[in-house]
Amino acid sequence: MNRKGILFVVSGPSGVGKGTLREKLMETPLDGLIYSISATTRKPRSGEVDGRDYFFSDVKTFESLIAADELLEWALVYNNYYGTPKRFVFNNLEKGIDVLLEIDIQGALKVKSLIPDGVFVFVLPPSLEELGKRLNTRGKDSPTEIERRLACYEDEISYIGNYDYVVVNDNVLEAAEKIRAIIIAERCSAKRL
Ligand code: 5GP
Fold first, then answer.
1. Whose CA is nearest to atom 17 of ligand 1?
2. CB 86 less than 6 A from any atom of ligand 1
3. CB-ligand 1 contact for 15 (6 Å cutoff)
4. I want to staple 39 with a disulfide (CB 3.0 to 4.6 A). Which of 5, 55, 68, 133 is the partner?
5. From ligand 1's centre to the CA of 170, what distance in Å?
6. In which region does residue 102 sit, left (phi positive, over 0), alpha (psi from -120 to 50) or beta (all else)?
7. What pLDDT was estimated at residue 1?
8. All domains of the chain, ordered by start, with CATH?
9. Among 20, 53, 5, 33, which Cα is nearest to 176's?
10. 74 membership: H or E segment, kind and range
11. Which ranges of the chain have pLDDT less than 70?
12. What is the pLDDT of residue 144?
């Protein structure tokens, strides 16, 4: 049966483990699902590879992508630009390939306004305390930055109503399996025929 691809958007507050979840999910790839690599002006972290983890770019190049309308959505996340290459997403959806985005909440809301029949998954931490612990132990952010991210949390979870599914990330393996189950179920949805 010919069908267009489905856009899956995994999103949620910073530090909730979306990236790890997405990596876990893609470790055992699902046939017909492709991950959309974002562009960013953030500097690569150790071990990150250009073209695999992100398309790392400078501010000028990123702003030219915005000006040329090459991005489906973009957002300034903690002072760095992040954005989703538009053509990649639409080309794959047209070919019937499902596309996975892992983006922040502002970006997900923009995508929802453009592609309302996408599937939107909100990833929650087990608790605010746990989120604080995770931000501290991953050691990527200064104490002030962590305070700032935690302060955003309440505002961010108020957007849950815009999403189709909520997955609590208390165990990465289980949470990734839940996302896999969501993808499989949506592929079987009669609504999409
Ligand atoms: P990190 O710098 O830790 O890789 O990502 C920081 C945040 O940016 C995460 O919440 C991640 O989901 C989000 N992010 C990554 N790529 C994109 C994107 O293309 N668009 C938007 N809006 N957010 C993104």
1. 103
2. no
3. no
4. 55
5. 20
6. beta
7. 65
8. 7-187 (3.40.50.300)
9. 20
10. strand 71-77
11. 1
12. 86
For 131, the enclosing helix (H) or strand (E) is helix 128-138
What per-residue confidence (pLDDT) applies to 168?
97
CA distance 114 to 90: 12
Ligand 1 in contact with 41 (CB < 6 A)? Answer: no
Give which of 103, 99, 98, 97 is closest to 83, Cα–Cα: 103
At 3-38, the pLDDT tens digits run: 899 999 999 998 899 999 999 999 999 999 999 999
What is the distance in A from the centroid of ligand 1 to the CA of 85?
13
Residue with tokens 């030219």: 64
Residue nearest ligand 1's atom 20 by CA = 83
Which atom number of ligand 1 is nearest to the Cα of residue 39? 19
pLDDT at site 54: 97
- Ligand 1 pocket mutation, candidates 104, 112, 169, criterion most atoms within 8 A of CB: 104
Measure the CA–CA gap between 108 and 122, rounded to whole angstroms.
Answer: 10
Q: Are strands 7-11 and 98-102 parallel, antiparallel or unpaired?
A: parallel
Residue 170 has a pLDDT of 94
Sign of the CA dihedral with 163 first, then 165, 89, and 191 last: negative
Structure tokens at 118: 């996408």
Give the per-residue pLDDT at 130: 86
- For ligand 1, mutation pick of 21, 52, 53, 77 (most atoms within 8 Å of CB): 77
**Paired residues of 75 in beta bridges:** 82
